[in-house]
Amino acid sequence: MKPPRSAYLHIPFCHKRCFYCDFSIIPLGNSAEILGGPGKTSINSYLNLLHREISIAPKGPPLSTIYLGGGTPSLLNKDEVYELLKHLQKKFGFQNGAELTMEVDPATFSENDLKEYLQIGINRLSLGAQSFDDKTLASIGRKHNMDELIEACSLVDELFKKGFLLSWSLDLIENLPGLTLEQWSFELEQAVQTDVPHLSIYDLTIEPETVFGRKHKKGELNIPSEFIATSINLKTTNYLKSKGFSRYEISSYCLPCHASRHNRMYWSGSGWWGFGMGATSAPWGERFARPRTILGYKKWIEEQENIELESSLIDNPSRKMPLDELLMIGLRRREGVHLEELAKYSGWTEEKCNQKLKLLQTYWQEFLDEGFLLEKNGRFFLSDPNGMQISNQILVQMFMWWDSVHFADVSEPSS
Ligand code: SF4
Fold first, then answer.
1. Is residue 194 within 8 Å of residue 150, measured between CB atoms?
2. pLDDT confidence bin for 336, thresholds 50/70/90
3. 324 pLDDT higher than 50
């Protein structure tokens, strides 16, 4: 596995928890911005832990993508972000032209805040829009409203058009409760009207330990039917294609030259450093998720400092990302996966490739026959939109194949 050239920093603070969200976050109410208030104290103690974690990480080559996600990283001020970037740069260095992305939420920044973030090196912004409808925003527990969102978009777009930003992106959620095809068409039109060059569109996932999870259990969540969800998904792809966007990954659409390099790194199976409470990293191919609570994270940092470094963080040339994981993430991309190349990279012999990869094709045969999955010169990829829409079913078959192969491997007596 090549040494990681990307880093993710988790900034867990939010004003309040949205009804669908089960991320590792710390809700601060309105105290985040009050100087010396309880919110600021929490932020300071957390940043101290984050700096300690960066300090104990092993060194590596210069970074080409850095992503500040959350949570709501725009609850940090310029100096706090600057100190984090400075620390990362001192530790690893940044490549020339490195992509530095920061997630920002509407109503958490002013024009001046944005300018300050850009002055210290942020060159790509990802704006958490989720919806352009006030009623929907309130029903999912977001803090911002539509006017604040439109204002945030125009501030970001102005800086982009003046050349201060490389690119920017909006997040939207598909298939929210009560959503109709007509409303979704309005959401897409509003998004495109902002002139945004990149969109991340996620399907709503119902997590059990959330307000939505509890409502769903009681049958109180009016989730769009499968038929409406399919129409919504088709509308997204067709409408965005008609506006010049291409779908380079299941959830990501961009105008030419605006794909997120950090996203592409992640879906290509490369390694990355992850820092922060609940953050996942896989610098050398093995995933490791940090504790999701502040107390657990603090304890883990102390162990790292005093006992021994988590093994997944230490370079080990023989360690590789498992083949099933490479296939799972690679299939999300427009270009799909080259089965034989990936299997050989995972250490499979020619003979094993011949035997086992043919078997995988039999697991996938019905999807190949129906055109959900396409093959060209050994490369397999999902058709858009039909294959991407049923990607989970295709992955389930892949995991069944993987279990059969893996089980046979571990059952074979060693000589
Ligand atoms: S703002 Fe984002 S991270 Fe924070 S609670 Fe809402 S969805 Fe979760």
1. yes
2. very high
3. yes
Report the alpha-carbon angle 262-194-135, nearest 5: 100
pTM over 0.85: yes
d(CA 324, CA 285): 12
Distance separating alpha carbons of residues 99 and 257, to the nearest angstrom: 13
Between the alpha carbon of residue 21 and those of residues 3, 209, 300, 311, 352, the distances in Å are 32, 9, 24, 30, 42
pLDDT tens profile 159-171: 999 999 999 999 9
Closest residue by Cα to atom 2, ligand 1, is 71
Cα 128 to ligand 1 centroid, rounded to whole Å: 9
Q: Is 224 in the pocket of ligand 1 (CB under 6 A)?
A: no
Q: ∠ CA(55), CA(165), CA(107), 5° rounding? A: 80
Coil, strand, or helix at residue 185? helix
Assigned token pair, 20: 């669908």
Q: What are phi and psi of 348, to 5 degrees?
A: -75, 145
End-to-end CA distance of the chain: 28
Q: Mark 181-215 as b/e (b = at least 16 C-beta within 10 Å).
A: eebbeebbebbbebebbbbbbeebebeeebbbbee
Nearest CA to ligand 1 atom 6: 18
Q: How far apart are CA 229 and CA 200, in angstroms?
A: 17
Q: Which of 156, 168, 169 is nearest to 110 (CA)?
A: 156
Contact 96, 89 (CB under 8 A): no
Predicted confidence at residue 414, as pLDDT, reads 46
Please determine, for residue 188, whether its predicted confidence score (pLDDT) is greater than 70.
yes
CA dist 374 and 387 (Å) reads 9
Tokens standing for residue 220:
């109180």
Helix (H) or strand (E) holding 252: strand 252-254
Å from CA of 18 to ligand 1 middle: 5
> Which of 182, 235, 174 is closest to 205 using CA atoms?
174
> CA-CA distance, 257 to 244, in Å (whole number)?
12
- Both tokens of residue 122? 């942020």
